[in-house]
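Pipeline run #58 for the internal structure catalog. This entry was flagged by the ingest filter as a single-chain record with no existing model, so it goes straight to prediction. Upstream metadata was stripped on purpose; only the residue string is passed forward. Reviewer on rotation: M.T. Logging verbosity set to normal.
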Amino acid sequence: MKITGYHTCKNTGNAEEITEPFHSRHIEDDEKKHKFLGSGYYFWDFHLTIAKWYGNTFYRRNYYIFEAEINAKEAVFLDLVGNRKSMVWFQKMYDRLSLDMPEINTWKIGTFVEYLKRRGTEIEGFFPYKIIRVVDYKFAPKEKDIFKFTKQNASYTNLNPVIIVCLTEINDDLVSDFKLIFEK
């Protein structure tokens, strides 16, 4: 699967020197440094509006947006958006590990992902994922983005979700065509 990702970062006046996305580090002892999915390289999944909102909000209207093609091969792609097998695997892993480690029940997802990545370095094949994708439900859908299934009930689909993609590493197999597309 190919994903077009948008990476928002601070405008430091040196766009031509930026050749790859910035790494965001998850620092366990500092809650202000907890990342959504742990340490990694973050992108918005084909959502330029959200990339701009993030730049305006967190970089005070002084930012770059880079675009990249992300090559999400199934063997390294934990898709918690559109792949039920990934979702079931993640929930089962959480449930299984929380039996032996009840403190997991207090962890946020980023802390849990960091734990899985550490275990993956200790046990080959335990956590083979290099790309993780999730929906951020903080953003309520706008009326224009809601398409109801029937008139009889409230069920609907949201055609404009906010989807976050985190890469645990960067290499040419995972990311290509990293280029500046917006500067403010």
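catalog note: The mean pLDDT is 94.
catalog note: Residues 41 and 73 are 17 Å apart (CA to CA).
status: ready for reviewer M.T.
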